[in-house]
Amino acid sequence: MRAAAAFLRPPAQVGRTHLPLTPFWLTDAQIEAISGWFPKSHGKARLDDRQILSGIVFVFRENLMWGQAPAEYGGELALRRRFTQWCQSGVMDNALGHLFEQDGDGQLRLVVTTAMLMRHRSGAHAIARGYLPTFAPIDEMEAA
Length: 144
Fold this sequence. Notes:
The protein is mainly alpha-helical. It has nine helices and two strands; from the N terminus they run H-H-H-H-H-H-E-E-H-H-H.
């Protein structure tokens, strides 16, 4: 039984080699720029949109599985459900298409790029189903 338990834990050196992930939080200005697309709450209180969207962006940027997101973002099920709901309603397309940040050179860039979405299973699935038309595959963008 001990031998089987040893296989379930990663070796000690693996824990030392992973870089610590710094949490990502959207700024007030970014949330204000996209707040018009969030659906209104209908009676039942729900988790904060900023918290959930920050978690979704964090998952895509770090290429994590939904369950690997820190609990401070609201949990796996909340992130995955809200991503799916927002994709189907068009909120995610508008939000991710209008979320910008400044890079080191002062240039604006998208917070979540097409490459980040394509390497993540849920992001690639959303693009393939047409939920994120703003993020067309790079080959199609170059051909247009």
